Amino acid sequence: MRYDNDDYPIPTPPSVVAAAAFGTIPIPFIAVYAVLFIVHGTVHPVVPPDITNSKNGELVAGIIAAVLLLISLVALLWVVNGRRRWPFVLVQLGMLGAACYFLVDKTAGGTTASVAIAVTTLGALITIFVPSAWEHFGMRMPGTRARGSATVSMPAGSTAVSDASPATARVAGRPRPPSSGKDPR
Fold first, then answer.
1. Cβ(87)–Cβ(78) under 8 Å?
2. CA 152, 155, 156, 157 torsion: positive or negative?
3. Angle ∠(39,43,45) on CA atoms, nearest 5
4. Closest-CA residue to 68 (of 97, 104, 47, 40)
5. What is the dihedral of CA 27, 77, 39, 117, to 10 degrees?
6. Distance between CA atoms of 79 and 71, rounded to whole angstroms?
7. Among candidates 70, 74, 63, 72, which has minimal Cα distance to 34?
8. Contact 158/167 with Cβ under 8 angstroms?
9. 3 state SS of 9
10. For residue 182, what are the contacts with CB-CB under 8 A and spacing of at least 6?
C-alpha cells in the first residue's frame, strides 16, 4: 500500500487489485514446475526426461522456473505497492507467450492449464492499463490531461505572472496581505 506525504495509506484501486489477483493465478503453476524439474534433475530422474534431452537439462529448467517464480513474486509486490508496473507487465507477457506456446505444441503441456494461464494473464494485462491504474503509479494515461487541468486563454499581449512575484506586480485578483511570519494554525 502506498502512503502520501503525511503517512496516510492511499488505497489501492480495484483495477490494480484485479490485476494482482489475475497475476497470482500462474504463480502456483511456476512453483510446481520449479520443484518438479529440480527433483527430476537431481533426486528422481525420469527416463525419458520431460522437457529436455538430459538430466542436467531438467535441473536447469527447474532453476530457471524458480528464478521466474521469485521475479514474479517481486513484480507482484511492486504492483500492489504502486512502485513499478513494467516488471509485472513483462512477467505477464512472458507467461502469456509460454501459455500460447504450450497451446500450439500439444506435446509440451496440458491444454487446460495453458488456457487458464492465458486467460488470467490477459486479464492482468487488461486491468493493469485502465486509467485508475495509471494514476496509482503516479502517471497519466497517454493522450489524456491531468485531473483538474484546464487550458486558460489569456488576452492577446498579456503574459502569465507567477505566484512568486510581489503583490504589486500581480495582474488579476486582490494582492495578498503581508505575512506575519506566524503559523496560521
1. yes
2. negative
3. 75
4. 97
5. 20
6. 12
7. 63
8. no
9. strand
10. none
The phi, psi pair for 2, rounded to 5°, reads -85, 160
Mean pLDDT value of segment 148-167: 57
* Grid coordinates of 173: 485578483
Give the model confidence (pLDDT) of 157-166 as tens digits: 666 655 555 5
Instruction: Determine the Cα–Cα distance for residues 119 and 13; give it in Å rounded to an integer.
Output: 21
Residue type for position 28: P
Exposed / middle / buried, residue 60 (Cβ in 10 Å: 0-12, 13-18, 19+):
middle
Instruction: Name the DSSP letter for residue 13.
Output: P
Which of 180, 181, 163 is CA-nearest to residue 172? Answer: 163
Coil vs helix vs strand at 3: strand
User: Over the stretch 55-65, which tens digit does the pLDDT of each residue have?
Assistant: 888 889 899 99
In this model, does residue 81 exceed pLDDT 70? yes
Contact assessment for residue 88 and residue 128, using Cβ atoms and an 8 Å cutoff: yes
Measured distance CA(140)–CA(131) in Å, rounded:
8
